Structure formats: C-alpha cells, structure tokens
C-alpha cells in the first residue's frame, strides 16, 4: 500500500517540480525580455511624478519596468558620485542640478543626448537659453531640463491680519519689522512662534544657499565671477555685513527666531512660524499636509535663486534610448502640468499652458508673475561649489550662535573676511580664483 | 597551512587591501571621478593640519570617544557586579536583557528616539528638568550640550555589550578568594574594589579598547541627532567619519579624505598600544 502510494506520488512530485521550474523559467524569460529602467531622484516628493510618467510610457512599452528610487538630496548626491564612478550597465535616468552635473561631464561619465533630444532642448520655443545652456557642456546637450528651484516668501495670512499687516514685506528692512510684529511669545517673553523662520542650523550647504538668497536682496553674492571662468568670494562687503547683521539682529536683538525653534516648511504648515522663504514645492506640500492653512506668497524684494534640475541618462552605450524616451516624456505638456499641480516644482519648459494650475492655486503667482526687474542667480558650475557652500555653512552656524557678533560691525566684518579667505583658498587650490 | 590560505586571501582582500590602498590614496589628489590622479606627497596631510573643520572634527571625536569610555567602563563594571551578585534573583534575566537591548536595537530608530528626548521644546528631558526648576536647555543646538548628547547616546548603546563581557569575567573569578576575603572580614564593596576590579583588568582592557575604537568611529549618532529633516534640524557635531564622508562624496576629495582616515587609524593604533601598555603590565603585576 505504501509502495503504491509512493509510486503514484513520485510522478506527481516530478510534475509539480517541472511545473515550478517551468514557471520560474518562463518568468525569468519574461523579465529578461522586459525593459528595465531606474530613475534616481534627490527629491522624495518627485517619486509620484516619475511613476505617473512611467504609467504613460507603458502604453507604448507594455513590458517596461520603471524603478523610481527617490531619496534625500544629499544622499542622492553621494549615490550618484559612487554609482557613476564605479560604472554599471543598468539604464538609469539621473536627476541632477546643472551645477552638480558639470563634474561628471568634465570626466565624460555621462553620455551626450541623442540628436532628437538635443534639438528639442535647443529649440528656443521649448526652453530659454538659461535652461538649455545649463543642460549643455561646451555647447553639446547632455541633459533634459525639467524643473527649477526658485524662492518666494510664504506668509500666514491669519497671523498677518492679527498683527495688523495687510500686505507682504517689500524690502529687507520690512522683513525684520514684520518679524518683530509677527513673533508670538509666552508669558516669560520667550518666542513660541517665530516671526520669520530663517535657516540657522542643520547639516549641509542649505544654510549657505539660504544666506545667499538674502544676500542677493542686498546686492551681494557668495561667489562673483570675472566673466572668464574664474571666481572669488563676494560677501566680505557691505551687502554681506547687512545680511549677517539682519540674521544676528533677529536672533539676538529682536529675538524673533532662534536655532532651536521649529523651522522650514513643517513649522509653517503647523503654524509655528509666520513667514519664510522657500521654493514652489511647498505649495504641493501644504496641499497635502495642511490643506486648511491660510497663506499667500510674494516675490522677494530683488530677485531669487534659480536652480535648474535636469535629467541625464547613464548606462550601457547604445542601449540608453529608453532612458532618453523617458526623459523626453517627462516634458510632455500633460506631465508638466501634472508636475506643477501635484508636486509643485516649477517646470522649465516654456511653451506649455500652465494657467489651469496657476489660476486654481494663486500661490504660484509669486513664482511666475514677478516684477520685470526681478533678478535671478544660480550656483556656479564649478567643481568645488559644494565644498565652498558647506564650509560657508559651517562658519555661519558658528556666527548664528555667537551673541557677541550682534551689533558689532567690526566683528562681523572680521568674520566675513575670515570666511571669504577660506573660500578664496579653496578657489586658489582648484586654480579658479579670479584676480 | 594550505587549508587556511583561501581564508587568509579573503581576509587580506577585504581587510588589508583597503587599508593599504587608503594609505596609498592619501598621497594623491583624486576627485573620485577623474582618471587623473597626481601624486602630491604629503600635501593632503599638510592641508589637514590647517583645516579648522578637521581640527574641530578631531577634537569632537576625541571628546566623544573618551567621554563614552569614561562613562561606560565604570558604569558597566558596577552594573555587571550588581547583576552578578543578584543572579539568584528572579529578575536577573530581566536586568541582563534590559541592559543589553540598547546594544542590539537598530541605531537609527534609537537615535530618533533620543532626538525626541533631547528636543528643546517637546522633549521629556526638559519637561522632567522643569519639575526641579531647571530652565529648558537647547540640547541639540548648544555646542557643548550637543556633544554631551552624543556621548550619552553612545554610552547608552555601548553599555550593554560592556556589561555582558564583564558578566562573563565575573563568572570566571575564583569563588575561594571571595570566601577567604569574607572570612578576613572584607565587606562586599571592599571585595569588589580589592579583588574584582584588579582581577578583571584583562576584561577591562578588552572592553576599553573596543569602546574607544567604536567611540572614534562615531558617525550615525551625530548624523541623525543633527540631521536637517525639515522643521527639526540640530547643530551638526562634526566628527571624523562624517568629515571623511563629506570630503569623499560631497567635495569629491578622496585623497584628502584618505589622509583623514590615515590619521584616524594612527590615533586608534596609538591609543590601543597605550591601553595595552597601561593595563597589561599592571595586570601582570
């Protein structure tokens, strides 16, 4: 009986094993025939956008598998440095700021764009020269422009009304005056809601970038070019003094903000700050996290940072076509409108009608309807730009914790001169210092 | 001999080769992306000597490593003694587990929990201090307090492992000596001080070397406590490993970061030798 049973079980087992092996083989064949594309992004909020683009592309490529890997920006930059320098054959669409991509282009680690993409990028109907230049190196197109970081003021309209303020500040002096009126304090006089949330702490270069935005309003720049590819520190001057002094006055004199107070978009969404300067993605973030928040936006007094981000394609030579197809698909009008509406980053392509979104969400006005003389700056495309910003940020954190600097112009000047020397030393080391 | 060759080869490849290659890289200027890698001799080391960020990282790391050592070793010894002398207690297993859990808990969630504890506005630490009339402190923003926070977090994590090793040491101590001491009228604390502490010197040597080395390798704790997640940044306490990573993958200066690694290696080697010298010789005596 047992013998019989084992005899009948054996073929059944063999059939089962053969079936499993067959299924495994078939699935392996299927996955081998499927095209796989990886998207590396430094902005987690961009993941739904890339997934949306992938869905659209699947109509044409039903077997296409798109893996979207969106992580924090600083970690993304490290991943790109390691990934591109160690090679790899996987087709990867990489999101990079134009200033960061230069290093990789200098070292021929990213391929140039195919002709159809290059002519699309160079067409002035599609992109302004600023954006097509940022996606190019030595006149050759390497990237597909996608979106840009551009700052504006976000302010809580209910807090403004409670403080008797009817319109946003228009000068940097007004920013400080408003901050003093808007700050909320407890019985002991300690600030509980900051009047103006400034970037005062944390790691990385963000502190220096935000400082540069404020410096720009005073006519200064962290780095100045001589127009011949050389640079020097441009903040050890009156503009730098005014900018740093404004930070220090707000921290130590008016006490409208402090490093340990909740800051940035999260604080604004939770009603822990009355105003702050940030990029357009915050609009999408507020819509998701604080839909009932009463707020408005306004252009900055003089101008803003404009930091274009492009898509590049890496992978085995001759097989990157699908990557470029994906990059081009991101710039289809329907996808760009989706990006603006659902994520909030500003698309760079110009001949697309975004009015359905901008009319529905008035907060976008500050990013698209700015004054005619509004001026933009961007991070220079030079190798040591991250190192310079990180080192300036480290120095600024020290300054923001040093009460003795507040109100002492001589000390502020000495601090700025010392920091400028450090920047110029880096530029000298890299052979980039302007005379 | 032939049988262990593959193992030796793997060890050499994954352990020795990276060290030798790091030493070699420290004499080059290399940006990780370029094919050019010019030899610059000791230039990286010369620049390190004048780099205030490196100096700040070195000072912070040294303070953290020794701070953790100073807290962990005596605390672990006392806790291990208390647990050992209460082995008959029904709760002894609980004590051991409770002390060891922080060592096995994943670092990131643990550090996030400590970040909340240290939070200047919402943290339970400041809430507890306010009961005693102590002003709330900006734990993660003050230059001194933020270093102390990292020491506390690292010590909390290192304690479990140190206690476990000390417990093994206690279990191997000869009972007859303690009985003789008791007959001679020695109290519990006297036995602990005059018998346990000297006899556990080899264990103390091992635990202190391991603790000091892991203290010098501190990174994730500093990174997480000061990570600039929106709305909750802290003061970035610059430590050596963090500085190395920043120089390698953000500033693209691999040769320079390698020279930092060489300095770290030299410091750890030197301190380990000193510890061996101090504890082994006295232990023998």
From TrEMBL, chain A:
InterPro entries: Bact_solute-bd_prot1, SBP
Family matches, as Pfam families: SBP_bac_8 (PF13416)
Keywords: Periplasm, Signal, Sugar transport, Transport
Locations listed in the record: Periplasm
GO cellular component, one term: periplasmic space
Chief localization: periplasm
Signal sequence annotation: 1-34
Similarity remark: Belongs to the bacterial solute-binding protein 1 family.
Protein name: Multiple sugar transport system substrate-binding protein
């Amino acid at each position: 009986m047992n013998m019989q049973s084992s005899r009948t079980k054996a073929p059944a087992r063999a059939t089962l094993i053969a079936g499993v092996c067959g299924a495994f083989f078939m699935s392996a064949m299927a996955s081998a025939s499927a095209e796989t594309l990886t998207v590396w992004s430094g902005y987690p909020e961009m993941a739904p956008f890339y997934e949306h683009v992938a869905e659209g592309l699947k109509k044409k490529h039903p077997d296409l598998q798109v893996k979207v890997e969106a992580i924090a920006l600083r970690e993304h930059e490290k991943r790109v440095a390691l990934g591109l320098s160690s090679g790899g054959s996987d087709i990867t669409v990489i999101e990079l700021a134009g200033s960061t991509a230069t290093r990789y282009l200098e070292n021929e680690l990213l391929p140039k764009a195919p002709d159809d993409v290059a002519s699309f990028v160079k067409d002035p109907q599609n992109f302004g020269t600023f954006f097509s230049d940022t996606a190019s190196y030595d006149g050759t197109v390497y990237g597909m422009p996608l979106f840009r970081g551009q700052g504006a003021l976000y302010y809580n309209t209910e807090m403004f009304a409670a403080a008797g303020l009817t319109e946003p500040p228009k000068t940097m002096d007004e920013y400080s005056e408003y901050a003093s009126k808007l700050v909320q304090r407890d019985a002991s006089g300690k600030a509980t809601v900051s009047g103006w949330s400034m970037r005062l702490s944390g790691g990385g270069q963000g502190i220096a970038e935000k400082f540069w935005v404020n410096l720009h309003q005073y006519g200064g720049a962290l780095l100045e070019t001589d127009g011949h590819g050389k640079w020097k520190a441009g903040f050890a001057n009156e503009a730098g003094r005014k900018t740093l002094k404004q930070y220090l006055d707000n921290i130590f004199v008016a006490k409208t903000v402090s490093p340990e107070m909740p800051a940035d978009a999260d604080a604004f969404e939770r009603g822990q700050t009355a105003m702050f300067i940030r990029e357009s993605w915050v609009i999408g973030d507020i819509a998701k996290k604080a839909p009932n928040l009463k707020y408005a936006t306004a252009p900055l007094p003089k101008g803003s940072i404009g930091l274009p981000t492009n898509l590049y394609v890496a992978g085995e030579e001759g097989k990157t076509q699908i990557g470029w197809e994906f990059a081009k698909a991101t710039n289809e009008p329907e996808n760009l409108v989706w990006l603006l509406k659902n994520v909030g980053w500003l698309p760079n392509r110009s001949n697309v009608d975004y009015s359905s979104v901008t009319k529905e969400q008035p907060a976008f006005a500050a990013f698209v309807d700015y004054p005619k003389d509004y001026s933009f700056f961007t991070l220079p495309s030079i190798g040591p730009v991250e190192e310079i910003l990180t080192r300036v940020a480290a120095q600024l954190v020290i300054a923001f914790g040093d009460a003795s600097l507040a109100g002492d112009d001589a000390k502020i000047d000495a601090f700025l001169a010392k920091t400028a020397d450090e920047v110029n030393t880096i530029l000298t080391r890299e052979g980039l210092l302007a005379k | 001999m032939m049988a262990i060759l593959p193992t030796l080869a793997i060890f050499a490849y994954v352990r020795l080769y990276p060290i030798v290659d790091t030493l070699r890289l420290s004499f080059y200027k290399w940006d990780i992306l370029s094919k050019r890698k010019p030899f610059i001799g000791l230039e990286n080391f010369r620049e390190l000597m004048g780099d205030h960020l490196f100096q700040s990282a070195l000072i912070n790391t040294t303070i953290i490593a020794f701070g953790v050592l100073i807290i962990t070793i005596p605390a672990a010894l006392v806790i291990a003694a208390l647990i050992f002398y209460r082995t008959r207690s029904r709760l002894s297993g609980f004590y051991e587990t409770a002390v060891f859990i922080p060592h096995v808990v994943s670092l990131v969630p643990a550090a996030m929990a400590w970040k909340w504890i240290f939070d200047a506005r919402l943290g339970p630490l400041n809430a507890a201090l306010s009961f005693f009339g102590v002003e709330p402190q900006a734990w993660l923003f003050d230059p001194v307090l933020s270093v102390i926070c990292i020491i506390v977090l690292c010590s909390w994590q290192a304690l479990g492992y140190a206690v476990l090793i000390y417990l093994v040491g206690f279990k191997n101590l000869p009972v007859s000596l303690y009985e003789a001491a008791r007959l001679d009228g020695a109290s519990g604390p006297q036995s602990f001080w005059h018998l346990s502490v000297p006899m556990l010197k080899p264990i103390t040597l091992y635990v202190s070397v391991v603790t000091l080395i892991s203290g010098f390798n501190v990174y994730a704790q500093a990174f997480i406590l000061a990570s600039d997640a929106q709305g909750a940044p802290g003061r970035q306490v610059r430590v050596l490993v963090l500085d190395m990573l920043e120089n390698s993958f953000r500033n693209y200066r691999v040769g320079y970061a390698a020279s930092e690694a060489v300095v770290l290696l030299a410091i750890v080697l030197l301190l380990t030798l000193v510890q061996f010298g101090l504890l082994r010789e006295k232990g023998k005596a």
